């Protein structure tokens, strides 16, 4: 059996040995006793703590008092969440277990409270929640990117995903041009001035094919050529797929020098987002290239018949709604067989290319120019004034007449075209009718001696 003083000293040792802050509070809310862990967590010496209002040491004193009252009314509280504020400003998140204690007559004399430091646990929990949110965002972005039909649809999706993934950052999305020579700014966000176009070699991220972090005081990474020399920390996230460059995402945190933790987190989010985005973008690029191949004539670069048929139906719908007129002009090179026979197929190809180029230059607004087949072209043009359309087409005929084509060193003779025109709605209400009527008018032009324009009639 321990003597009373030995018991007291034994109990004191136990209290002081506890790593959890322990405190007894009187019925009027004044601190009566603390252990050294309480001194440590508050940064306030014991003699100052004792006698002071217990709620002074919390970030939310009102909530602390509410917990205290709850313990009083219920006899105890379990895992009551509070945050202790150290004299230096450091915050410790805790869960309180508090129970009332009574005097010798059985009346409640105060509260005995023990706190458990859960700062690390809460931080890990918040990070886990943020990581889950990031994963969901990245998955949503990838899903949407996979459903895009055109690159233009992908930009706003990526922009809004990256804005949410890096909420305290500004940034921009660059796409590599078709020739692979320039990164062109497709979209940007936040208050930032970015280079509109630059060479991929100016970017260390693009050169090395991996995320480039620079502008941090503890990093030796050089600042890219497309970024101001005195820039703060920034990330260049290259978008590469199958060893092919697609684009670049530039992220600049708004906080001056993020700590190592923050940078590490940014890097891992950036890596996960770029991994998902690059595959979806590669598929989209491939799809766009295939579509482009399927609607273009390889010799002249003009749209082909398939595209014309697709788009003419759409244009007619639009014209019907807006009550506008539309002209379909069928243009055929005269005596092309004889030309081919005299000068060869390759010279004929050169004429087709040059004629195609001239026709392409004729385009205005939403005009469509296509190679319909062989030596036949179709121009679709929308206009309110039919006389203006006919004037433009007549000028086109004259331009072809004066088109000078060289094949190697050989100057080729000038050619002419015959043009048949059908106008919507006067000559037909749908694609097939209009193309037939334009073809019939072309036949009339050929019969009448060629090198002329005939309107369906
Ligand atoms: N070089 C070249 N010739 C082509 C191509 N496609 C079609 N042709 C030729 O275009 C010629 C068309 O001849 P026709 O349909 O008889 O017409 P035309 O000789 O132009 O006579 P008209 O149309 O009545 O003035 C044929 O000789 C085809 O071989 C092509 O891609 N390249």
TrEMBL record:
Record-listed E.C. numbers: 2.7.7.65
Cofactor dependency: Mg(2+)
GO cellular component terms, A-Z: plasma membrane
Chemical reaction(s) catalysed: 2 GTP = 3',3'-c-di-GMP + 2 diphosphate
A GO biological-process term: regulation of DNA-templated transcription
Listed InterPro entries: Diguanylate_Cyclase, GAF-like_dom_sf, GGDEF_dom, Nucleotide_cyclase, PAS, PAS-assoc_C, PAS-like_dom_sf, PAS_fold
GO terms, molecular function: diguanylate cyclase activity
First-level EC class: transferase
Pfam hit, one: GGDEF
Name by which UniProt lists this protein: diguanylate cyclase
Source organism per UniProt: Methylomonas koyamae
